[in-house]
Amino acid sequence: MKAREIHLASRPAGWPVPENFRLVEVPVPPLEPGQVLVRNQVLSVDPYMRGRMDDVKSYMPPFQIDAPLEGAAIGEVIASESPDRAVGDVVVHNLGWRDLTVLPAARTRVLDTTAVPATAYLGPLGGPGLTAYVGLVEIAPMKPGETVFVSGAAGAVGSLAGQIAKLRGAARVVGSAGSAAKVEYVRGLGFDAAFDYHDGPVRARLREAAPEGIDVYFDNVGGEHLEAAISALHVHGRVALCGAIAHYNATEPIPAPRNLSLAIGKQLTLRGFIVTSYGHLAPAFYAEMTRWLREGRIRYDETIVDGLENTPDAFLGLLRGTNLGKMLVRV
Amino acid sequence: MKAREIHLASRPAGWPVPENFRLVEVPVPPLEPGQVLVRNQVLSVDPYMRGRMDDVKSYMPPFQIDAPLEGAAIGEVIASESPDRAVGDVVVHNLGWRDLTVLPAARTRVLDTTAVPATAYLGPLGGPGLTAYVGLVEIAPMKPGETVFVSGAAGAVGSLAGQIAKLRGAARVVGSAGSAAKVEYVRGLGFDAAFDYHDGPVRARLREAAPEGIDVYFDNVGGEHLEAAISALHVHGRVALCGAIAHYNATEPIPAPRNLSLAIGKQLTLRGFIVTSYGHLAPAFYAEMTRWLREGRIRYDETIVDGLENTPDAFLGLLRGTNLGKMLVRV
What we know:
2 copies of one chain form a homodimer. The first copy, chain A, has helices at 49-52, 127-139, 156-167, 180-188, 202-209, 223-232, 245-248, 262-265, 282-294, 311-320, and strands spanning 2-8, 21-27, 35-44, 73-80, 90-93, 100-104, 109-110, 147-150, 172-177, 193-196, 214-219, 233-241, 269-272, 302-306, 326-330. By secondary structure, the first copy, chain A, is of the alpha/beta class. Chain A folds into 2 domains: 2-123 and 301-330, Medium-chain alcohol dehydrogenases, catalytic domain (Quinone Oxidoreductase, Chain A, domain 1), CATH 3.90.180; 127-276, Rossmann fold (3-Layer(aba) Sandwich), CATH 3.40.50.720. In chain A, α2 crosses α3 (156-167) and α2 (127-139) packs across α9 (282-294).
C-alpha cells in the first residue's frame, strides 16, 4: 500500500512557486499498537503555512525539506490498532498534505457530523473559527456598540470574525477584501460596509466606510492596512494581530506601520496571538459557535480544489486570494 | 504687578527653534475668591510638550499661538483668596512657563517637603516617577527574574524605570542613551548594561547587552529602538509605549518598526499609555516611591537651567538630549 504525499522540495524565496513542492509516493508502514490508518478526504491549506516554509525559529518548527508538509485534515479511519478508534470513524488531525497517514489515535479527534458537515471542523468549528473568536473575545476584546474593522474579510478567519462581531453586538462592522466580487460577498455576510483595498489608499477607503473611526481592528494583513487602522482607531482602541499576509512573501521588510507612535496618545493596545495558546477558550467557543450554526446565524463558504496533486496550487491560490471563505482540497 | 510668561509665537515645523517662543509681560489680574497667586520657583520641561506645539487633536489640547505654554511647576503661594491655601505654602500645579500665576487653589497641591526636596515632586514623586511605575506595573507588567530594556535611560522617566525594574526584581536591566557620559551615568544607576545608540545599529548593541533576549521593553524613543526591541523580545514579551522622541521632530513618517508582524508569532503585547489615565495607581506608587526614597534606594538627578527666559533653551536642550535626569528651570 502506497501513500501519496506533498513534500517541500525547496524553500520559497518570496512568493512560493510550484517547484517548491513535490508529489512523492511512499510505502504505508504497518500499524503499531495505538495507531490508526486514516484515508484523508479533505485537506486544509492556511496562510500560516507560509511561515513554516521558511527556516526560521518561530512558534511552530519549520517544515523540513524532502519531508511531507502538515496541516489540518479530515479523514476516515480505515484500519485501527487502537481500542479508542473504530474503522469508519471520521476524524480530524494535523497530518494533511497526503492521502493516507498512520498516526497515534490520540492525535486524532472523532467528529460529530450529525448536526454539521465534517468540513465545518476545518472552518467555523475549527482553527479559523476559534481564531476569530479568541481575537475578538480575548485579544482585542470587543464591547457591544463598538465599530470593528476586519481585513481579509472574505477569507476563512475574516469572514467569521466579522460575523462574530455582529453576533456579539458590534454597532458597525467594516471589512476589506481584494476584489469587487469579494466585497459583494462580504456585504452578503452582514458586514455593514466593505471595500476593495485596490480602490485607492486603505486609509481613505476606511475613512469612508467608518467615518466615525473604529474601536477594534482584527488584522489579517499587516502593512498598509495596519497603518490605516492605527490612524482610524479611537482612544483605547485595540488591535488583534492575527496574520500579516502582506508580509509573508515580501523579500524586503515592509516599512509599515509608520504611525505606531500614535499608539501612545491614543493609548492603543496591539496584541499578537497564536490560537493554539488559547485552548482553554475552546469549550466556550464550541458551545457558542455550535448554537450559532444550529440557528443558521453563521454563514461559511468553502472554495474547493479537487485532487491531492493540486494542493500546492490551492495553497498558492490562497496566498493570491483566489478563495472565498475557506480554501480546501478534496483528496 | 507684572508676570513674565513664555508664549508660543509660532508652531515648530520639525525641530523647534528659539523663534517659536516669545517672552511676554502681562499684568497680574486681581485675585477672585478661591484663587491663589503663586510665584513659581522651578519649572519642568518634558518631551511630551513637543506634541502640544502641533495643531493636532491628541490626548491634550494643542498649545495656542500667542498664549502661554503650560507644564508642571513648583512655586510658593504669595497671596491667597482661598481658605485652603496659606501664604508660604509650597505647591505644585500645571501653569509653568511663567514666573507668576493666578489659579484656583483647587488646581494646586501642597507639597510635603519635610522628607524630600520640593523638586522630587517634578521627578521621582511626580509625573516621571508615576509614568515609569505605571509602565512597568500596569502597561507592560514585569515579573521578577525578567530582563527589561529601557531606552532614554539617562532621562527623567528612563532612569527611574530602570531603577524601579531592579527594585521590583528584574534579573537584568539594560539601558540605551545618547552619549558615552550618559552610558556611564546609567551604569552608575545600577543598570546591568548600557550602550550608546550612536555606536552602531541598536539591534546589534542590544543583542550584546542582552544576549538572551528581553521580556519587557519600556519605550521612550520609538523608531529603530522599537524595531530592535521587537526583534529581541521573547514570546509573550511586552512593550510599554511611553514616548517616541525619535518621531517628535520628524517631518516625514519614520518607517519603523518594519518587523511588527513578528508580534504575531511571538504573541507580543504593545500598549500605549498616558500617565494621567492611571491616577488610581498613584496612592500605591507614592507609598512605594516614598519608601524607596527614604531608604536611599532611588537615585535621581537634575539638570538645572537658570532663568525663566531660558526655558525655551532648556526645552530645546531636552529634545537634543543635553540633560542627565530631569531637566528643570530655576525661575
